Amino acid sequence: MLLRLITVISLILFMLLMISGVNIELALYRSILVFMILFSVVYISIFLLNVLRENEESGGVTVPNSGNSKSKEDN
To answer: 50, 46, 16: which is closest to 30 by C-alpha?
Structure first.
């Protein structure tokens, strides 16, 4: 689904660049560059979300309990 969306965005950009009169090599280069940037951003964000999800399932970051803190009942 995301790959199709990225492809459609790149093709629309290519079409708009061709309509505006840009050289075909430059339009192709820019649309491929946009495709690669969008694909890498989506891939990296999915990877980082999976890392965060695994971190939360394994217990996550815990703050060690120090002896200096007092509870409300001690006051």
So the answer is: 16
